[in-house]
Amino acid sequence: MLLIHNVQTMRSFTAAALLATFGLFAGSSALEHYICTKSLPNALIECAEYFEISECRLSQYVEDSYPNCPDVKRLIRCALLNVGAWEDASGVRENVISNFFEPAAEDTCYVNRTRDCIAEALKQLDSKDYLGRAYESFLCYYRQYGNVIESEQFFPNEPLESKRLLLSAINFAHIPQCELVQYSRGHIVDEPHFPALWFVWALRGGYYKIAEGTDLQALYNQFGCSELLSQCTKSCVEGVQRELSHADDKTKSYQTFRRCLKDLVPLDPIQKIALELVGGSHPTPPPCGCGPVCRGACGATQKSYYNNN
């Protein structure tokens, strides 16, 4: 009797904890999922630890507006890499670094002013001087674009993280082998399980928020397509949200993609991963058992001591 009582108590406690959690997050996007956020100050602090630069010295560098010295250059490049805002081969990523600076409301010239600053500053530097190029690019944003935002901001997944996110979404959405074969052939959008895949990917990656809808800014940060922030795209997304206001989030997410985003968000990563998963070829798809999965189909006959429904 004591054992049964303890099990029931534990079940009650677990249920209460879950209900409290569901209540806390219902209708919100507070869950972490696979979303990457970080502040530029925290990125600098992390990099200072990597290079064994004391907190006192780092504070002095910030107070002195990032003086031109080797330690500061290493810190800046590291911090920009840390938030996905820099690539040695191509330089600063405008669609990412802009998240970490806030221009004044009355300033309408900050973008072109910053671009001109970077173009002029990099003229004097060797193409392989990655520390110097990252440093000068950062200074142009620091001096010409806006004030540093202290709070955490969304930043994009790197290629390996993007692949892991997509693989987990395929796994969570339980995409059948027959549909993966279709993906590998480039037949994606009209496949029956793609709405579930898109929804899990978008929600888990931070590109869709429950009760808020598609986050165009996050998609822009990830893919860098300026058309994602155009008024035309925004109006399209808002129109779908209004039309489908009573639909479930999976439907709203998929229809938003289909009607507004399918030419702006690349699907070739899905095709490439599907090709890997089906063995690098385009086999004849097996018969698709894509119907609903039965609950309780495992023939359990023993009495359960835990989590009885």
TrEMBL record:
Keyword set, alphabetical order: Disulfide bond, Secreted, Signal
InterPro entries in the record: PBP/GOBP, PBP_GOBP_sf
GO terms for MF: odorant binding
Subcellular localization, as worded in the UniProt entry: Secreted
Main location: secreted
Similarity comment: Belongs to the PBP/GOBP family.
Name of this chain's protein: Odorant-binding protein
GO BP annotations listed: sensory perception of smell
Pfam families: PBP_GOBP
Name of the encoding gene: 6050752
Gene Ontology, cellular component aspect: extracellular space
SUPFAM superfamilies the UniProt entry points to: Insect pheromone/odorant-binding proteins
Top-level taxon of the source organism: Eukaryota
Taxonomic source organism: Culex quinquefasciatus (Southern house mosquito)
